[in-house]
Amino acid sequence: MENNTILYRGAEAEICYCYYHSNPAVQKRRVKKRYRIEEIDKKLISSRTKEEAKLISDSRRQGVSVPIIYDVNLQDGIITMEYLNGERIKDILNDLSEDKRIKICMLIGESIAKLHNGNIIHGDITTSNMILYNNRIHFIDFGLGGKNGETEAQGVDLHVLMEAIESTHSKYSKCFKYVLDGYDKKLKKDSSQVIKKIDEIVKRGRYR
């Protein structure tokens, strides 16, 4: 793959393939917003880049597989990370055997529990933001994440994944149950409170 190949372009950032000391890497480059005052835009880009890099590092300390960070440029809003030459869970989950699918979903739940044990909210837990690499599920894109230990925030985090599974993997809706089984296995507090919160969030959506 050529240097600076754009792998993904979103509203907030673009992901580019690159090399770091001859090693394959990716850069997450935050996009400047022309509608914002330049000084404010620079401060927002810097603070969000710093927050995301910290969340990735904190997640690793919690035992969650994430890309290794090589470099952080706060001024330009760039995080240079390990290139994970694996497969997105979104692309493979539907084609796995039932046993393998259950195992993957359990591992996803265990990883989310580890994040929540450290009061880390991912903010966009979908199967698009998980990569199977070296037999481990790596979580990527913490751009919408933050620190929050409240049950409400954890319930919202899981609800995002529930909706993603229902829309992208609708034939295998039981996958979310297996995620919750893994979550219950590793969460240090009573998982029933978080699961109850998910149900509340679903009901809120129905009655809007």
Explained architecture:
The protein is of the alpha+beta class and 208 residues long. It has 2 domains: 5-82, 2-Layer Sandwich (Phosphorylase Kinase, domain 1); 87-206, Transferase(Phosphotransferase) domain 1 (Transferase(Phosphotransferase), domain 1), CATH 1.10.510. 45% of the residues lie in helices and 22% in strands. It is built from 6 helices and 10 strands. β8 and β9 (136-139) form a beta hairpin. α3 (98-117) crosses α5 (175-186) and α4 (151-168) crosses α6 (191-206). The longest helix is centred in the first third of the chain and has 24 residues, at 38-61. The termini are far apart. The mean pLDDT is 94.
Task: Describe the protein's topology.
Blueprint: E1 5-9, E2 13-20, E3 23-30, H1 38-61, E4 69-73, E5 78-82, E6 87-88, H2 89-92, H3 98-117, E7 120-121, E8 130-133, E9 136-139, E10 146-147, H4 151-168, H5 175-186, H6 191-206
Antiparallel strand pairs: 1-2, 2-3, 3-5, 4-5, 6-8, 7-10, 8-9
